[in-house]
Amino acid sequence: MTDTRNPSIGDLIEQRYSRRAALKGSASAAATVVIGGSVLAACGGGGGGSTANPPPTVTATASPTTTTAGNRVTITATATDDGSVASTSFVQVGGAAVTLSATTGLTTSFTAPAVTASSVIVIRFTATDNSGNTASADVNVTVGVGVIGFTAVAKNRNDVVTIPSGYAVSVLYRTGDPIAASTAAYANTGADTDFANRAGDHGAGFYYFGLVATGTGVDVSNSARGLLAMNHEGITQAYLHPAGPTSAGGVRPEAEVLKETEAHGLSVVEIAAGTSGFAPVQASAYNRRVTPSTAVAINGPVKGNALVQTAFSADGTAGRGTIGNSALAQTAWGTALSSEEKWARYFRRPPAADDARRTTKQVRALTRYGVTSTTGLYGWATVTGNSLYARWDAQATGASATADYRNEPNQFGWIVEVDPYDKAATVRKRTALGRLAHSGVATSNFIAGAKPVVYMGDAGENEYLYKFVSGTAYASADAGATDRMSIGDKYFDTGTLYVAKFANDGTGTWLPLTFGTGGLDAANATYSFTDQADVLTHARIAGDILAATPMDTPAWSTINALTGDIFVSLKGNDQRTPANTNGPNPRAYVDAPSAQVGNRNGHVLRMREGTGGLEGTTFTWDIYVFGAGSDLDATNINISALDATNDFSGPEGLRFGRGSNPSGLGSPLLWLQTDDQAYRDVTNNQMLAGLPGGVGDGGTAIDKTVTNSGTTQATRIGKAPGAALKRFLVGPVEAAVTGVDTTPDGRTLFVNIQHPGQNGTAAAPTSNWPDNQTAAAAGVRPRSATIVITRTDGGIVGL
Predict the structure, then answer these.
(1) Each residue of 540-552: pLDDT tens digit?
(2) Residue 239: helix, strand or coil by DSSP?
(3) Which of 357-361, 411-415, 629-633, 696-700 has the lowest mean pLDDT?
């Protein structure tokens, strides 16, 4: 009889079927290997082999064997044989789905997935010898729900970025860095020019837009190559010129003003990961600057209205540029929504001279929006002979609105849409979303059949929260459109703008800002509205008339994609007194060394839509966390029981982890950033990571009464965060930490550090960051910069 050591055709078919089933992770395959949670080693056989030619001997081990979501797990195997091993493989056969890395020798790895309860991941290692004999070993890894996995960074006032142990930081993109092939490296002496082809100053909100590996198209899932679309909120004027700004006879030099204006706006820069991490692609065809001089289109209900007609655009359909941009959000069709916040301060309009030239209604509107500076912030309007600078003079000096720039302020304060993938696409100002000092902008999930919703905050003390509901239901096919700006026209040019009115009992109502309703009409004695364009252009006044709830300086907004809860940062309010507190803004106190009564430290609000979902008009709310020093009164000030690991002040930037990785699944991770003055005697500004729960997790009734200097205020508070909120980063001297996003896989975190050393001068800078992050850099001028943070073990940042 012949010795048949090779497997039969039937055996080969059976092996192929079994391995394909294992690759699919079928329930039947998993059931054959998971027995009481134990590891089965060297199971399986040679399919016809004999003791003279036994199958390989295999083992497989995991490190670690027990972990939580977001951590890296490494599987290491061995395979020995008296002949030779022909092939090896790793497949998942049980538990929540994971993605195995490319096999390196006898090693693979995966990121522990987000789970809502403990789950056992089963990975099978299989070796096959030259005779077709196989053997397998299964390894079990127990994965628990996500936790914040780093040790909190201590508060400090160091002039570097401080991050937790087990993390690495590098500098990616700095003020003045060239983004065109022919632009020279930035000397950082004040002599540099051509900011139209350089990174702007004061990087703020941004978003990572993925590119295909070749860099020639859209791939939202690519974590190795993409575009950063970034706001440049302002400038540190002292460091942009050789010896600081100059003025001769009260007139600014045009060359200096050109540099200052071009350093504002937005930038789009391509970045790619290499062996040393991410770096900008200087010569990328995608790289782009949008400055205050860039041509823009005015879209929506205000387009063509008399309120936006100027000497530049007599028909009120076009404008120039964007300025003072703060937060930035993304759409499902691949565009960026940028918020114009600090725009009013740039205009010259001395009320003593100009009020007499205006109607009572116009004076009311200009005053309400803060267009009252006698000089403008940097004196740009003093440059003569160029309308790019003359337009910053908003006085009514001509015979009509089309003979001067009296209406130029009405062209700012909008949400601006930009296509980062198409530098030729005209920038749009989306007037249906209202004119404010826009800070926060957050987009809802784009779900087929539901109307897109955008949440916004007006960044002033005692200003309001708003939301826009599109007039058109979303079609999922639009996510793949190539004419992305036309898709923006479809969803953002019509719809309803609402303002929020809160009740102290944890409920609230969205009030429509619609001409002809609620007193928003021509008969209103306070302010006579002409049409819907007037209502949208003067949304603040409309909110006043509707008695919206004044808030403690609304800043950024973000949405928990799993629960729909909206989180809003409220930076604080020096005008808040015990007599004018309300439920969502309940504190008025003194925080030494200041003697000022107010909400010095701010808080983060949570909202949940009621009947009708995101498109509805009712909501519930509570307060996720109160900012405070851990040394303050626990009963009425440090209500969230913050300690040395998580106390903070002045919350601004907010963003949840992306749903494409474990930081945005299960219990999504929230990044919370600060831009604060009140706590700088103790620590520089910071960024924290939290697992914040949801509205109502602190109770079901009005569960807190705050005492403020003898008065009381009922409010709603959430569960104290405890260890589910930790300080992740502390920034350098005099800097704000503002702007955060990750790659889709969550393994690379980008953070903006804004205006380090903002109180210094060219001759005496008060910070040397970022040059001093890795080496001494005495005397070097500071720059705003985007940093890159990774875990040294390759896991999900923050978990």
Answers:
(1) 999 999 999 999 9
(2) helix
(3) 696-700
Spell out the residues 6+ positions from residue 217 whose beta carbon is closer than 8 angstroms to its own.
Answer: 211
From the CB of residue 61, how many other CB atoms can be counted at a distance below 10 Å? 15
- Which of 264, 559, 297 lies closest to 417 in space, CA to CA? 297
pLDDT of residue 710: 83
User: What is the pLDDT confidence band of residue 105, given thresholds at 50, 70 and 90?
Assistant: confident
Confidence at 701, pLDDT banded by 50, 70, 90? low
- CB contact at 8 A, 683 and 155: yes
Confidence of residue 52 (pLDDT cuts 50, 70, 90): low
CB neighbour class for 192 (10 Å; exposed up to 12, middle 13-18, buried from 19) = buried
Q: Torsion-angle region of residue 602: left (phi > 0), alpha (psi -120 to 50) or beta? A: left
**Inter-residue contact 52 to 4 (CB < 8 Å):** no
Secondary element (H or E) of residue 21 = helix 9-23
Q: What share of the chain is helix, strand, coil (3-state, %, to 5)?
A: 15, 35, 50
- pLDDT over 50 (residue 23): no
List domains and CATH numbers for the chain.
9-144 (2.60.40.10), 167-343+412-791 (no CATH), 344-411 (no CATH)
Largest Cα span, the chain: 115
CA distance linking residue 381 with residue 394, whole number of Å: 9
Look at the alpha carbons of 753, 759, 765, 766 in this order and tell me if their dihedral is positive or negative: negative
| CA separation for the pair 295, 312 (Å, rounded) | 11
Closest CA to 429 of 318, 312, 315, 543: 318
- Of 429, 436, 504, give the one whose Cα is nearest residue 465: 436
Cα angle 220-226-229, degrees, rounded to a multiple of 5 = 100
